[in-house]
Amino acid sequence: MQNLYFDLKKLDNACRDAYxxxxxIMMENAAAALEKEIRAHGGFCxxxxxxxxxxxxxxxxxDGYALARRxxxxxxxxxxxxxxxKSGLCKLQKERAEKCGTxxxxxxxxxxxxxxxxAVIVDCVFGSGFHGELPENVQIILNDASxxxxxxxxxxxxxxxxxxxxxxxxxxxxxxxxxxGALKLSLFQDSAKDFVGDVVCADLGVGRRLYENSSNxxxxxxxxxxxxxxxxxxxxxxxxxxxxxxxxxxxxxxKRGAAILASSAALRFGAGQVTIVGDEGTDFSFVPPEIMSSxxxxxxxxxxxxxxxxxxxxxxxxxxxxxxxxxxxxxxVACVIDADALLSPRLPxxxxxxxxxxxxxxxxxxxxVVLRSCGFGEHSVxxxxxxxNELIEEFCKKYPKCxxxxxxxxPMIGYFDGRKYNLYVNPFGMPCLAKAGSGDVLSGLxxxxxxxxxxxxxxxxxxxxAHALASRKVECDYAMVPSDIxxxxxxx
Length: 492
Description:
Distance between the termini: 18 Å
Number of strands: 19
Structural class: alpha/beta
Oligomer: single chain
């Protein structure tokens, strides 16, 4: 896992105090990191040897002027002063760049020809301290820069994204974001994902571990999951039987496909036995031969997944209530609550009674309903995306030991054990997962790990990673179907 921070100003100051660094030393390292990305890109020469640097008036702009000075002799460097230099360092770095012969143009000299002729465009206009809306003339330049055939690099954070990850109109769309010192949570918000590109963390004069440990206070707000954090249910012992790997139950609703996908995913992901449970008189002829079926929950059930494809209305609510009643009476049985069960009026009272061994997996619209029914007030779906991390924390602190996995471009997983709150961000989400049935597969993956006695937070994190990473193995994203994810988990 990698640490995520909200604001790095305190870490910057602590780093300077702890290691005797100056702002200029840190800025020179920031410029060197940007230069490294330009050189790594390569593949441009001749007429398309131009590097266009867009500079603001603060220290982000100063990084751009320092970069211009460093690469002036190697490339055709052009700087646009999008905002007049204001900070002391920005004025100083601009003066140094000018002395090296860098061509610096004002905002009013801008023409489309400048961006169209550039091989690389570097955005150094606004940093993470930006808030509000971009000036209209800056919007125009950033929009033009985002829509030409060039390699685009953002310094620290794409201009137009604020410290909360909110994206304003005209935001720069980067291929690579070189963020400085440590990783910011704002770069991994759902709304930022289409703008940040690949995120590279640059050292500012000391190694990242020293930088992050420079403060006596822990400033971390979340953890970024990595592929190595995925705990796969690989079998290390030989003297075992199916009972050693748990018995997962998947509730059958009116949409049978949801139960098939979830149960197939559970079996594929290591559950020893999987049973689809329906009502009296259910025709189970559609159930694959490797999946068991029953009208009763098996005696040795270890985990239950319900809500997927259950439907709405009185009949569906009665089916959902059956599982809430069962889980209230069997507190040692872990559960995944998804889809229609998240919309049940029974959910708040159930969570108040027992939130231990519970994983909720809403998408943003379901999250909106969950928040309302659980007493957190009215929130728009867009708020549930933009303020996802804040709302997850509020929810988890009200229901300790309940794991909340909110789906999205970058799924987030919250967990409060009664003393410490943890937020985990999965950066591997893919657009191909925006397809009916993908969520049912995720529920099946989670219940499989719960059946195998994983801790709830580990089950949610590992299943979310497996879900996303398996989807990345599909060659044609729009053609992916949920069964491809199930097939690919065996290749992780």
